[in-house]
Specification:
alpha/beta, 7 helices, Rossmann fold
Length: 192
Amino acid sequence: MKIGLYFGTFNPIHVGHLTIANHMAEYSDLDQVWFVVTPHNPFKKKSSLLDNNHRFQMVDRAVEDYQKLSVSDIEFKLPQPNYTINTLTHLEEKYPDYEFALIMGEDNLKSFHKWKNYELILERYHIYVYPRISDGIIETQFDNHSKIHKVDAPIMELSSTFIRKAIKDGKNIRPMLPEHVWSYLDEMNFYK
């Protein structure tokens, strides 16, 4: 089975995340997509993050009706800050019968050369890239690379940052969140 790993803080998960993940599961050779909830991205400030368990719960609720989507808390159990190469190695050991691949936005591909052990990741794993509107250029070494697959997914210009600010400002952003996630956020009074 081929599993696409979609890493993120998902603070909160929104319909853009779900649309991309579902598109990857339906329109690529991936059998499943796992949302890997990241406790601490080395490139992000930790202070703005909701508790790990709350973010995991939201993703779990968001994917419950999707057979090909699931959530993983694997990074919660690994030393922090965690790096993708460590998670991939750990998952390979835990699930030796699965083939793992990375899912990332085009914006992340532009900074991929800064990732820890990116050469090793590229040597051992396929990367599925969805389009994003962003500044910067993709390193030429990643153009037409045999392990990098550009997937013609919808361009989603929706961000968790926008959603958090909108909630804080008292805006109705309910259509931007899966129903179960909206209910959870509202019930817990998050981001207000």
